[in-house]
Amino acid sequence: VDRFLSLLLSISSGLSPAEVNAMKFLCRDIIKKGKRETVQVGLELFSILMEQQVIAPDRLGFLKELLRHISRGDLLALVEQFEQGELQAPEDQPDEREKPFDVIRANVGRDWKKLMRELGLPEVKLDKVEAAYRYDLEEMVFQALREWQKWKGKDAKVADLIKALQGCNLRLVADWVEE
């Protein structure tokens, strides 16, 4: 998988519909109105910007500017990590089939810390995530899962997530993940 496309996917999955709309507004001078109105998610916007050669793996200034304007320092940090070559290569990540983060993100809620402790994530990492995403519970869950994934590397398995969810009495979420 192309690292740049993986970066854009990560950014897109972290954007709310309101943030996508704000980014579309900021692109009004670059993308024609008709095309802009069809954009629903970040990936669609990024595809258009890549077609128009506004963003590319070696041309990230405009993307960084967009993220600054919508106050998403967390996503901006991903771009900066990419620039420094620090984003992990796809082979360092668990298989794509083993990323049930969206199910967990949408359904774990306030029990996220309990789940992360069950997975063995160090308390210092939990505090870091909580401080960075204090006002966005779903993003806290997502970023905590990513921290766990980085921490475990290739040993981050769906089976471990399911077991931890069951251990936290989140059996319904565990069943959804299993599906």
Automatic annotation (TrEMBL):
Instruction: State the Gene Ontology BP annotations.
Output: extrinsic apoptotic signaling pathway; positive regulation of innate immune response; regulation of apoptotic process
Please provide, in alphabetical order, the Gene Ontology terms of the cellular component aspect for this entry: CD95 death-inducing signaling complex
> Which ranges carry the Death domain?
97-179
- Start and end residues of each DED domain: 3-81
Q: What is the taxonomic lineage of the source species?
A: Eukaryota, Metazoa, Chordata, Craniata, Vertebrata
GO terms for molecular function, please? caspase binding; death receptor binding
Q: Which InterPro entries would you find in this protein's record?
A: DEATH-like_dom_sf, Death_dom, DED_dom, FADD
Annotated protein name in UniProt = FADD protein
